[in-house]
Amino acid sequence: MQTAFSLPETIALLSRTPASGEVLGLERSSRFVNAAQKRCAQYECVNARIEEVDLMLDGIPATAFDAPWCRWVACFVSSPQSLVEGLAKALKPTGVAVFHEYGDYASWRLMPPRPAINHFVAAVMESWRATGGEPDVGLTLPGLLQRSGFSVREVRPLVFTIGPADFVWQWPSTFLRSGAERLRELGRVSDLEVKMIVAELAEAERDSTTVMMTPLVLEIIATKHSNWSPNQVSAHVNAPDGNHAMECERRSGASPWRTAVEQRSILDERARRLLPEQNSSRRR
Ligand SMILES: C[S@@+](CC[C@H](N)C(=O)[O-])C[C@H]1O[C@@H](n2cnc3c(N)ncnc32)[C@H](O)[C@@H]1O
After folding, report:
1. Is 217 in the pocket of ligand 1 (CB under 6 A)?
2. Angle in degrees, CA 41, 47, 51, rounded to 5
3. Distance (Å, rounded) from C-alpha 55 to C-alpha 61?
4. Tens of pLDDT along 32-86?
């Protein structure tokens, strides 16, 4: 059995699943669940099951499955650690987990630069953080996976440079137009800012020399250890190593993305811990 998070992954995994297998799609939004179920019925996908599940509250309703694929979901959950631990429990030994999550959302840029679109990207990141998510969650996943019984086999950046005529352009441009409106509804951008975002996008689309760099996605592929047991998870949770810093800060309710002054004091603190010889020479 394979487990997907949301509709596109479910459909994609179905094409790779034998008729004897099953794909389980997990999604929190009842609207998306209904749409996915309708789509599956339309295509007579008899070996697909879509369930309404909040991954943070309900966990993963499966055991001993072969491969989960999680795209752009870990960035919205309040605890990526719980998500990864849940996967470790539900996956069969030697099962393979695949993630596509952002590693640097702010890398989403246009050439030449467009200030209103940069503002949009920053506002999107703020809005996700305000609801407990983390756009650049991909940066924490390799460490979390290793501490939860996985070997990380591959971490690969996926970035595209595209022009308005490219098919892929439709993905970010559609999100920009609907996203600007959504940010206005949330009170995160003004009417004028929405107009500027849409106008800049239209201007960029009229200019055939425009290039868009898509936000950096990390493809992370990890295999579950064959001898892993659920008790091993919590033993590592509070390990104060460097890779774990962002997760620890998140758990304490603080954002790992801080002002330059805050960042500086965090670095000083880390230097005191990691480079004691430097501190003693400074004190002398
Ligand atoms: C940006 S969409 C990605 C959809 C799809 N995975 C894809 O790649 O196109 C994020 C999805 O994550 C779902 N989601 C967010 N938090 C969730 C949670 N705690 N449990 C289950 N689904 C969640 C949202 O409802 C939304 O459908």
Report:
1. no
2. 70
3. 9
4. 999 989 988 888 888 889 999 999 999 899 888 899 999 999 999 999 999 999 9
Q: Does ligand 1 come within 6 angstroms of the Cβ of 196?
A: no
Peptide bond into 112 cis (omega under 30): yes
Q: Which residues of the chain are modeled with pLDDT < 50?
A: 233-245, 247-258
* Category of 15 on φ-ψ map: left (φ > 0), alpha (ψ -120 to 50) or beta: alpha
pLDDT number for residue 155: 98
Q: Ligand 1: does its nearest atom lie under 6 Å from the Cβ of 100?
A: no
Domains in the chain (CATH in brackets) are 54-253 (3.40.50), 254-284 (no CATH)
Q: For ligand 1, what atom is nearest to the CA of residue 100?
A: 8
Ligand 1 in contact with 152 (CB < 6 A)? no
For residues 67 and 97, what is the distance between their CA atoms, to the nearest angstrom? 5
